Backbone:
């Protein structure tokens, strides 16, 4: 069901320092910071040949990554995102298997303008999993 690894997201306490590490330290193709107010994050996209790394920093009140950063002040890996071709079918199958889709259980529009859902880490080896519908 899952396809390509779309991205790995890392929450960072300092976006400029994170971008600097990936750009100058690791020599990667790194975007300028992008504010995503609807997602409550500012993100820097690191474009690798086979996938992306997204550096996330809280933006505004009630950011979904603020508590994670409070618990992990040096930052840390936040989630992995796998591509699916039919997100409604994926939700139906996984909830039938007993997995928990976070929020209202319905897809929302994610950082790339495509439908996404998140699966509870308790059901996925302690890892927060994002599914993104990519046609
Ligand atoms: Co993501």
Residues:
């Amino acid at each position: 069901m899952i396809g390509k690894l779309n991205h790995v997201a890392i929450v960072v306490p300092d976006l400029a320092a994170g971008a600097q590490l990936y750009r100058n330290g690791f020599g990667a193709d790194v975007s300028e910071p992008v504010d995503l107010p609807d997602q409550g994050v500012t993100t820097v996209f690191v474009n690798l040949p086979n996938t992306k790394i997204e550096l996330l920093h809280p933006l505004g009140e009630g950011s979904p990554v603020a508590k994670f950063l409070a618990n992990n002040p040096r930052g840390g890996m936040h989630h992995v995102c796998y591509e699916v071709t039919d997100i409604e079918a994926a939700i139906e199958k996984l909830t039938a298997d007993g997995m928990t889709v976070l929020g209202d259980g319905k897809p929302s529009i994610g950082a790339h303008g495509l439908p996404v859902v998140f699966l509870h880490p308790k059901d996925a080896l302690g890892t927060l999993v994002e599914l993104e519908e990519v046609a």
Observations:
- The pocket of cobalt (II) ion is lined by residues 7, 9, 54, 79, 81, 111, 130 (CB under 6 Å).
